[in-house]
Amino acid sequence: GKSYRFDISHPDKKNKNLVELFLKDTPPDNTAITVVVKAGARSDSKSIGTVEEDRSHSYHTLRPFELESVYYDRASSRSQSHPVSLRFSHQLDEQQDLEAIAQGITATKLVDEAGSETVMMVSAENISIEGNQLKVHSLPVTYEDTYNLTVQAGLIRDVYGRVYEKSIGPETIAVPAAASFARFKNYGFSM
Q1: Which of 39, 57, 66, 72 would bridge with 89, disulfide CB 3.0–4.6 Å?
Q2: Is residue 149 predicted with pLDDT exceeding 70?
Q3: Which of 108, 184, 181, 179 lies closest to 146, judged by CA?
Q4: Residue 6 to residue 19: CA distance in whole angstroms
Protein backbone atom coordinates (compact mmCIF):
# COMPACT_ATOMS: atom_id res chain seq x y z
CA GLY A 1 0.00 0.00 0.00
CA LYS A 2 0.89 3.65 -0.15
CA SER A 3 2.65 5.37 2.74
CA TYR A 4 1.65 8.90 3.72
CA ARG A 5 3.97 11.51 5.17
CA PHE A 6 2.69 13.20 8.33
CA ASP A 7 3.37 15.80 11.00
CA ILE A 8 2.97 14.93 14.67
CA SER A 9 1.88 17.14 17.56
CA HIS A 10 0.77 16.96 21.20
CA PRO A 11 -2.78 18.41 21.33
CA ASP A 12 -2.98 18.04 25.13
CA LYS A 13 0.06 19.64 26.80
CA LYS A 14 -0.72 17.83 30.09
CA ASN A 15 -0.84 14.39 28.48
CA LYS A 16 2.36 13.83 26.49
CA ASN A 17 1.31 10.24 25.72
CA LEU A 18 -1.40 11.57 23.41
CA VAL A 19 -0.17 12.40 19.94
CA GLU A 20 -1.98 13.66 16.88
CA LEU A 21 -0.97 12.89 13.31
CA PHE A 22 -1.63 15.27 10.40
CA LEU A 23 -1.35 13.66 6.98
CA LYS A 24 0.40 15.86 4.43
CA ASP A 25 -1.65 14.38 1.58
CA THR A 26 -5.37 13.64 1.64
CA PRO A 27 -6.08 9.95 1.11
CA PRO A 28 -8.78 9.14 -1.45
CA ASP A 29 -12.32 8.24 -0.48
CA ASN A 30 -13.12 4.57 0.11
CA THR A 31 -9.63 3.66 1.29
CA ALA A 32 -8.54 1.47 4.19
CA ILE A 33 -5.94 3.26 6.35
CA THR A 34 -3.71 1.54 8.89
CA VAL A 35 -1.57 3.47 11.36
CA VAL A 36 1.34 1.38 12.66
CA VAL A 37 3.07 2.29 15.92
CA LYS A 38 6.46 0.62 15.75
CA ALA A 39 7.81 -1.42 18.65
CA GLY A 40 9.60 0.80 21.19
CA ALA A 41 8.04 4.03 19.87
CA ARG A 42 7.87 6.91 22.38
CA SER A 43 5.98 10.18 22.30
CA ASP A 44 9.01 12.00 23.82
CA SER A 45 12.39 11.19 25.36
CA LYS A 46 10.96 10.86 28.91
CA SER A 47 8.20 8.41 27.98
CA ILE A 48 8.35 4.64 28.29
CA GLY A 49 8.38 2.93 24.91
CA THR A 50 5.57 0.76 23.57
CA VAL A 51 5.63 -3.00 23.92
CA GLU A 52 7.99 -5.25 21.97
CA GLU A 53 5.77 -5.72 18.91
CA ASP A 54 4.27 -3.28 16.42
CA ARG A 55 0.72 -2.10 17.12
CA SER A 56 -1.67 -1.17 14.34
CA HIS A 57 -4.93 0.79 14.28
CA SER A 58 -7.14 0.71 11.19
CA TYR A 59 -9.98 2.86 9.91
CA HIS A 60 -11.67 3.58 6.61
CA THR A 61 -12.02 6.89 4.79
CA LEU A 62 -15.42 8.03 3.53
CA ARG A 63 -17.26 5.41 1.57
CA PRO A 64 -18.90 6.39 -1.75
CA PHE A 65 -22.17 8.35 -1.60
CA GLU A 66 -24.72 5.79 -2.86
CA LEU A 67 -28.42 5.10 -2.94
CA GLU A 68 -29.02 2.04 -0.77
CA SER A 69 -32.75 1.47 -1.25
CA VAL A 70 -36.10 2.91 -2.30
CA TYR A 71 -39.11 1.60 -0.40
CA TYR A 72 -42.67 2.38 0.57
CA ASP A 73 -42.69 3.29 4.25
CA ARG A 74 -45.82 1.97 5.97
CA ALA A 75 -45.44 4.53 8.76
CA SER A 76 -47.95 7.09 7.44
CA SER A 77 -48.93 9.99 9.65
CA ARG A 78 -51.14 13.03 9.33
CA SER A 79 -48.21 15.13 8.15
CA GLN A 80 -46.73 12.44 5.87
CA SER A 81 -49.23 10.23 4.10
CA HIS A 82 -47.99 7.33 1.94
CA PRO A 83 -44.27 8.15 2.33
CA VAL A 84 -41.61 6.68 0.06
CA SER A 85 -38.10 6.64 1.51
CA LEU A 86 -34.93 6.94 -0.54
CA ARG A 87 -32.18 5.74 1.81
CA PHE A 88 -28.59 6.82 1.12
CA SER A 89 -25.25 5.64 2.47
CA HIS A 90 -24.55 8.92 4.33
CA GLN A 91 -26.50 11.55 6.19
CA LEU A 92 -28.03 14.12 3.85
CA ASP A 93 -27.45 17.87 4.03
CA GLU A 94 -30.60 19.26 5.66
CA GLN A 95 -29.80 22.79 4.40
CA GLN A 96 -30.45 21.83 0.77
CA ASP A 97 -33.04 23.71 -1.27
CA LEU A 98 -36.05 21.40 -1.03
CA GLU A 99 -37.87 23.26 -3.80
CA ALA A 100 -34.98 22.62 -6.22
CA ILE A 101 -35.07 18.92 -5.33
CA ALA A 102 -38.88 18.85 -5.72
CA GLN A 103 -38.63 20.35 -9.22
CA GLY A 104 -36.38 17.44 -10.21
CA ILE A 105 -38.81 14.77 -8.98
CA THR A 106 -41.40 13.35 -11.36
CA ALA A 107 -44.29 11.26 -10.07
CA THR A 108 -46.66 9.73 -12.63
CA LYS A 109 -49.71 7.71 -11.65
CA LEU A 110 -50.84 4.89 -13.89
CA VAL A 111 -54.50 5.59 -14.58
CA ASP A 112 -55.75 2.71 -16.74
CA GLU A 113 -54.81 -0.50 -18.48
CA ALA A 114 -54.03 1.37 -21.73
CA GLY A 115 -51.04 3.02 -20.01
CA SER A 116 -52.49 6.50 -19.51
CA GLU A 117 -50.61 8.46 -16.89
CA THR A 118 -51.34 11.46 -14.72
CA VAL A 119 -48.41 13.62 -13.63
CA MET A 120 -48.58 14.55 -9.95
CA MET A 121 -47.08 17.86 -8.85
CA VAL A 122 -44.28 17.56 -6.29
CA SER A 123 -43.38 20.60 -4.16
CA ALA A 124 -41.13 21.25 -1.18
CA GLU A 125 -44.09 20.39 1.09
CA ASN A 126 -44.01 16.85 -0.32
CA ILE A 127 -40.42 16.08 0.61
CA SER A 128 -38.40 15.97 3.80
CA ILE A 129 -34.87 15.04 4.80
CA GLU A 130 -34.49 12.83 7.85
CA GLY A 131 -30.93 11.69 8.51
CA ASN A 132 -29.84 9.59 5.55
CA GLN A 133 -33.32 9.47 4.02
CA LEU A 134 -35.13 11.65 1.53
CA LYS A 135 -38.87 11.11 1.96
CA VAL A 136 -41.43 11.86 -0.73
CA HIS A 137 -44.86 11.97 0.85
CA SER A 138 -48.43 13.28 0.72
CA LEU A 139 -48.83 12.84 -3.02
CA PRO A 140 -52.42 12.55 -4.29
CA VAL A 141 -52.52 8.76 -4.13
CA THR A 142 -54.71 6.37 -2.25
CA TYR A 143 -54.48 2.75 -1.15
CA GLU A 144 -53.69 0.23 -3.89
CA ASP A 145 -52.56 2.92 -6.38
CA THR A 146 -49.41 2.38 -8.43
CA TYR A 147 -47.15 5.19 -9.62
CA ASN A 148 -43.65 5.81 -10.94
CA LEU A 149 -41.13 8.00 -9.16
CA THR A 150 -38.06 9.49 -10.89
CA VAL A 151 -35.40 11.81 -9.42
CA GLN A 152 -32.99 13.74 -11.66
CA ALA A 153 -29.24 13.40 -11.16
CA GLY A 154 -27.24 16.04 -9.29
CA LEU A 155 -29.94 17.23 -6.88
CA ILE A 156 -29.17 15.44 -3.61
CA ARG A 157 -26.14 16.27 -1.45
CA ASP A 158 -24.69 14.63 1.65
CA VAL A 159 -23.28 16.42 4.72
CA TYR A 160 -19.79 16.21 3.21
CA GLY A 161 -20.88 18.24 0.17
CA ARG A 162 -20.82 15.31 -2.26
CA VAL A 163 -23.57 15.29 -4.89
CA TYR A 164 -25.40 12.12 -5.93
CA GLU A 165 -24.63 12.10 -9.66
CA LYS A 166 -27.01 9.36 -10.84
CA SER A 167 -30.68 9.64 -11.71
CA ILE A 168 -33.05 7.49 -9.67
CA GLY A 169 -35.82 5.51 -11.30
CA PRO A 170 -38.27 5.25 -12.64
CA GLU A 171 -39.12 3.31 -9.48
CA THR A 172 -42.56 1.68 -9.47
CA ILE A 173 -44.25 2.36 -6.15
CA ALA A 174 -47.22 0.19 -5.18
CA VAL A 175 -49.26 1.66 -2.35
CA PRO A 176 -50.48 -1.34 -0.33
CA ALA A 177 -54.05 -1.97 0.74
CA ALA A 178 -55.16 -0.24 3.91
CA ALA A 179 -54.36 -2.17 7.05
CA SER A 180 -57.51 -3.58 8.59
CA PHE A 181 -57.81 -4.79 12.12
CA ALA A 182 -60.22 -4.79 15.06
CA ARG A 183 -59.29 -4.18 18.65
CA PHE A 184 -61.46 -5.24 21.58
CA LYS A 185 -60.63 -3.93 25.00
CA ASN A 186 -60.58 -6.63 27.65
CA TYR A 187 -62.71 -5.41 30.57
CA GLY A 188 -62.32 -8.69 32.44
CA PHE A 189 -65.01 -11.12 33.50
CA SER A 190 -68.26 -9.66 34.79
CA MET A 191 -71.73 -11.08 35.46
Answers
A1: 66
A2: yes
A3: 108
A4: 12
